[in-house]
Fold these 3 entries.
Entry 1:
Amino acid sequence: MRITHKCLVAVLVATIFVPHVSAAQQVPTIYLYVNDFVGVLTTDEIATLDEICYELDRYNSDELAIVVVNTTLPLGIDVFSTETFQANGVGKEGLDNGVMILVSTDEALWRIEVGYGLEGILNDAKAGAIGRDYLEPYLSQEDYYAGIFYAVSAIIDVLTSDPGQPSGNKYPLFGYHIDWWEVATVITVFIVIAALTRGRILFWIGGVLTRGRFGGGRSGGGGARGRF
Amino acid sequence: MKLSKPMLIGLILAIVLLILTAWIVVAYNSLVSSEQKVEAQWAQVENQYQRKIDLIPNLVNVTSQYTQFEKSTLENITALRTQWLSDLTSAERLNTSLTLDGQINALVLAYYSAENYPTLSSIPLVAGLMDELAGTENRIATERMRYNEDVRDYNTKVKRFPSNIIAGMFGFDEKEYYNPPL
């Protein structure tokens, strides 16, 4: 009976530590706002970009994601970009106001993915122009920060200059996001274990507190890409 | 009140019948929802094709000003567009679209071979149009992919037991995937 108890505890506790993986295809899980999977940006640079994107979010609720990866193979940059965008829901649900800058360092490709809601003001031609004028010159010199920074500024210019966009963000912004399902699971597990072991348990907080997630926006595959 | 045996059997039968009916309703509605999703998604695919067709006149207008640029290809493209608009069946439109793709690809290739048209690639209008064309192709690919996913979900319901019984009863047929020949 004791052995069964311990096994049960072990299994239940292990499930708390299941890492978050985006469903289906092999696309990464991304968080607000800068996701450097390669390590080309310093902590300070990431902090500055995060800050800028946060301000944009606060200003008109647009979500600007920045993702740097080694490679987008085997999916290819277009499919990888759209799938990552959709799986992580960049942009607010209903508004679909998300933009994602994707840089693939090994392939030397960039892509700006634009959500449904912003296709009107940030059309393919503008996205392409921003990529060619701001990303390419710097990325080809391996100055990733400069390229991304100028591209972000240019995109924000376009997004904030349109009078049709809502100003002010009525959505509550969380730097950290509380995953209520995790909380419920942990509490249930706690109660079950407490009942089984008559109070002798350890309490893990585990995956309850994670970095903030995006709002659930969608993309139809719009945007532009290029080589650097 | 004590239930007599026949009444008890009657009650059980009634409950079973109720559950059966409920299941039929749920299964049928699920099939209907899936089918609607597929059809709505198909409309999206056609939408993107239309968007591509709409871009053509602009493309021809802007690039034909640079008179040396691929004149015969541009004429082909205009003719194919007219044909696309007058095509009636899905199959015809698909064929025309594929031929059109070939011509557009030839155009884009010529555009990007900078030695032939060194000035062309630096013209923002043309670059923008090329972006729009590439973007539209990507949108078509995305919507097609989503269409195929929806078809897969629908077909699974139509073929899986026990919902295949309902599908057979009410005439829900398997749908075809969208896989144009390369």
Entry 2:
Amino acid sequence: MKASEWLKIHPVKALTIAGESSLQEAARMLLDDPEGRDLFVLDAAGRVSGHLGFWHVATLLLGELRPTHSLREMVERITLGNVAEHMDDRVMCVGVDEDIDDILHKHDLFQQHVERRVEDIPVVDGQHRLLGVVRLSDLLRDAINKAVD
Amino acid sequence: MEILLIGLLLLTGLMLGVLGSYLFRVPRVVGYIFAGILFAPDFLGGPLGVDTTEWTRSIVAVMLGIIAYLIGGAATITQLRQLGWTIVTATLGKITGSFVAVLVGFSLFGLAVADVPGWHLALLLAAIATTTAPAAIVAIIHQYRARGPLTTALLGMVVLDDALALVIFSLVLAGIDSTGFTAAIPVIIWEIVAAVGFGIGGGYVIERTARYLPEQELKLVMLLGGIILLTGLAEAIHFSPLLTAMTLGFSTRFFGGAHSEPFFRPLEQLQEVVFVLFFTLAGLHFAPAVVFSHAGLIIFYFLLRAGGQIVGAMIGAKLAGAPRVISHNVGLIMLPQGGVAIGMALMLTSVPRLGDSALLIVNIVTATTLLTETFGAVATRFGLERAGELGQATETAERKKTT
């Protein structure tokens, strides 16, 4: 099944934000959508320029509650900055014509998950504009159902 | 036997550190240092067949390289710009104050060791005096949930402080290795240029190569390999290993951008191991006879460092127009001195020119670390309380008292 067809069967609202937004705004957006765990940063043309996950936002904003701090975390705690300063600018994207079964095989999603905790995989067109997201939980559900069948 | 000893040092250090902290409420470093003393050649180290401490030099060089790398990568250029003038000038004031006070004090009334000029020792101690122990300060901030302008300034200052301290120490080390003032200038220029060049080049290569190494484990191999290689290269062709490692950290963070996490997190998790090793190795070098015969100097160093940094930080903060709550407390709350100072002192044992005076410096720094970690923690708490920045933990304790 192509990514474009998957998006029709599993419509998921992609959460997007501008790079200049504050981390508090990013947190509010994520909290307003209980299922949303990933924010995609779009440029003026609607292209995906970065990713910011819930875990990352939470660790930045709740940093002062951590019992120990590395030097990096100490600086982060006092210089929060905006979304663009913390986003991951090398986002793993899926082409609209890619086969959905290839996603996990082709991209090392699990390594990405360990490093960056990505749960929504953005699907983009030829110009890298965001069309929707493939949610890891939907992929898992689909895999379990296939195994039962 | 050395490998057996390292294992014993780590585990005994851990045990004594945790027990001391739990039973007697003393900082863990006190336990670490006692573990080292226990295994010194004059005590249990002798029966174990470890009669010298020369084998520790390579370990110290690599470990200090790791710490310098983490200090270099602590902040990005954008973050440095956001820190603000108060933090910058207060840090510069604090560093200048402690450096000048120890340098002048020891030059005028200091120690003299055969074959080593007194001003060499004064310069080295002054450079070491500029360091601060972030861990001890952060532990207090967390314990008392401190927050406010002083806490914010403090967090920024401890990062800048150790970075500048490493630069000063590297330059002093390069300077005293030269035969005179005119000979020292080209040496220092070479130390800086080579260190910055190799550091930036190394950071670029590490970041580019890491793109082809998806597994975190392989990145760690490359990182440690890079730090050790550059430290070795610095020793071989005589440029500063510490400045190189620090520039390596800074440039890796710069080139890695938002992808820097894998370049730092694994080494940050190693940091406590490094500090346990530093403190226990310092304990190995600990000579009670040296400490007791130089007790006056140890107290002199402690007072000069404390006085210099309190006055210096106050002047620095005032120059930036900082409120009184910052200027009057910031020097006091940065009293703890820790792993970086000990690492620097241990590094001196591999400078042949210094001879036995390196051992004396290790002992002065170890003894004052015990003092500053114990009394410094009290001073940090006092300063934060005076600034009214101690938070919920204190409120909870007070509520318990009243009920």
Entry 3:
Amino acid sequence: MVAIAGNVVLAARSGDATAFATLVHVETPAAYRLALSIVRSPVEAEDAVQEAFLRAWRDIRSLREAELWPAWFRRLIVRSALDQTRRRPRVREVGLELAAEMPGLEPAVQPADRLELIAAFDRLAPDDRAILALRFFADLELPDAAAALGIPLGTAKSRLHRALERLRAQMRQEP
Amino acid sequence: MKPEERLADALHATLDPARPLPDLEDRIVERVSIRGRRTVRFNPRFGVAGAAALLLVVVLVPLALSLRSNGGPATGETASDFTSMPTSVPTTSTEATATSAPTEGLAQFHRDGLAFDYPVSWKLNVVEVNEHYILVLDFLGTGLGQVICTAVTPGPSDHFVSGVECPMDFKVDPGQVEIRLEQLVGLADRGPIDPKDAKALASGDEYVTVGGQPAIFRADGRADSASGLTLSWTLWAPENSRFGGTSYLLTAIIKAPGDAQMRAQVEALTASIQYDHYQSPAPTASPS
């Protein structure tokens, strides 16, 4: 997460659209990647980011302190991404959409075991992807990952454990 | 390399280069400005201590134009703070006259230091939301505009989200107009509006006069677009409460068809705005 000046958040909270646009500019790239880690579709990731910012603009007055913005907004991103997966459940060819649209993911430039791992990750349920992405992509400590998911720490621990088990199981299966 | 490390490596390798389409930020900003939740800007005169935002929201939602012919007062306007007074007397506003506002009956709103007339066929929903994490919520009447607050129950590790979330989205169908009135305090308070201060205006803003006081007007979008035409007035009422002046934000969204008539009604409403002038209660003789 990029550090956001507290006065920008305060100004956005007071209704300053220009300040909020600054937040959009600063946060969008990382927000997009986090959403993409959960929804696994560039289109849905963009939708999730848009939805998260609209929710943020709508509800930013409920943000008590400016320094809580990163965690608060991260939670909106995760919630919006998970909403996307629930709103439009569909079966997709694992990895193909990402591979076609994301630089760096072309099979030719990725080691085979990395592709297998990502393919296994893609086959997980969104909730599993979310906890794994928050922990191992966003590099959050588990309490912060739990907060982003809106679940108790104990639940996050068990969910992370089960997600890793399922990831290993996926990797043992043929795609 | 441990499996967790391999996963982190794989996720970073595949996601770090990912970029959204270049226009995503613009689309988001556009959608936010279309929604126009608030257009006021940070007033540095107020410190963090003033951030306790007491937000009073009143949502006025009219019936669809097709229901207009039903006439009659909107239901639910039974609170003592409101008087529904069907009348054929048009507003005395020159602005309303100039825009050929319809002459259907008018109801009167008078509350929180503010008074204005609105078409009697419109529905009035009264919502009071105390954003200082204490919720007081009232609905009077029915309509499409409403604030639905949901309690946010924090988990044991959830130390940053609590209280209540109150989405205040407009819900405007084609052929409808919706007005939201907010009272702004704390950081949102605009304070006295100085029409000589050009720097206080954002692009697209203009100074107007409402209720005999300077105000800021802004129009965004088009009535025939999906998001509709958004009109907003930032108002300042001096000395209308025992606490001093009050900032208001009145936002209207209009969607075609029938937008010309609805805009005339909205402009007639704003032209009829009057601010209360607070007077200290006369001392009463206490029994000796």
